[in-house]
Design a protein that fits this description.
307 residues, alpha/beta, nine-stranded mixed sheet, 13 strands
């Protein structure tokens, strides 16, 4: 049955309300006038990874808990419009949602509504096993209740990836994800010693590749015991928002891995896709296509060789 889809994305479906603010941190004031408007759209980490994978031509399926509410309707509509199969398990607490405050430089502050989950939430085992058994790879978001699915996923033998986002290298919640995945992504934001954290992940878990992204400073890739610096690339248009850049990086890296590319080239795919994502406003959902990705990577590699 394995191979009916290329990637199963587990978790991370939800809705964001986007507010462009004059600066971050936002100084206290009684009120602010938001001339650009306040907009709500579907798209959290799992949605963006699924969109990125699908835009690159990979057969993608998304599984998560969704509420019977307007936010859930937005998520369902997004997947329907993009032709991405979605298995939505009913969530009585409602669909995940967040408010993103976005500064003029594209940085953001996210406020997550943690009331829309229950401690006993679980993915139905038969559904999880059937979908995992029909895919080449599973990308696991760190949203609840994905941690509880890790043992069942590992038992299927399917390869796993995860994004730990702004993990500080110490919070125990992230450790099961870090140690179960074959490919681990995380941000450098909260790390004091990125290389040390990368090596600890590889030593304590099963990761074949660990990637730390650092925005304009590029990324670090740990593979085959060696750390390689991956330079950031100039975005194809002005930077307007960093939201979704890490998800785009992960999707493009996985595209490279699933098409047989070596880790360094996979990371270059990620750098190109991440740069592209920074040019897309938070109020929109757009991902780089396969032809543009490959052209930009070839161009970047040609420039590097010519220096």
């Amino acid at each position: 049955m394995t191979g009916e889809t290329d990637v199963l994305v587990l978790g991370g479906a939800g809705v964001d309300t986007i507010v462009y603010v004059p600066q971050l941190p936002l100084p206290y004031a009684d009120s602010y006038m938001i001339d650009s408007g306040i907009r709500t759209r579907a798209g959290q980490t799992g949605d963006f990874v699924a969109l990125g994978l699908s835009a690159l031509g990979l057969r993608t399926h998304h599984l998560d808990l969704l509420g019977d509410d307007p936010e859930g309707d937005l998520v369902r509509a997004l997947h329907r419009e993009r032709g991405i199969p979605l298995t939505a398990i009913p969530q009585p607490a409602g669909t995940k949602r967040a408010v993103n405050l976005v500064g003029p430089d594209g940085r953001r502050l996210s406020l997550y509504d943690t009331s829309r989950a229950h401690a006993d939430d679980r993915f139905p085992e038969p559904v999880l096993q059937a979908l995992a058994g029909a895919t080449r790879h599973v990308h696991v978001a760190i949203t609840h209740p994905c941690a509880h699915a890790l043992p069942a996923l590992r038992a299927t033998g399917v390869s796993l990836s995860t994004d730990l986002h702004d993990w500080d290298g110490e919070n125990p919640y992230h450790e099961p994800f870090a140690h179960a995945a074959d490919v681990v992504f995380l941000s450098a934001t909260a790390l004091t010693d990125p290389e040390r954290t990368m090596r600890r992940i590889a030593e304590r878990g099963r990761a074949e590749a660990v990637v730390v992204t650092a925005g304009a400073e590029g990324a670090l890739l740990l593979a085959d015991g060696a750390v390689t610096r991956i330079p950031a690339l100039t975005p194809p248009a002005p930077v307007v928002d960093s939201n979704g850049a890490g998800d785009a990086f992960a999707a493009a890296f996985l595209y490279g891995r699933l098409t047989g590319e070596p880790p360094v080239r996979c990371a270059r795919y990620g750098a190109v896709a991440g740069a592209y994502a920074c040019t897309v406003p938070s109020t929109e959902t757009a991902a780089i296509g396969r032809e543009e990705l490959l052209n930009r990577v070839d161009h970047a590699e040609t420039e590097t060789v010519g220096r």
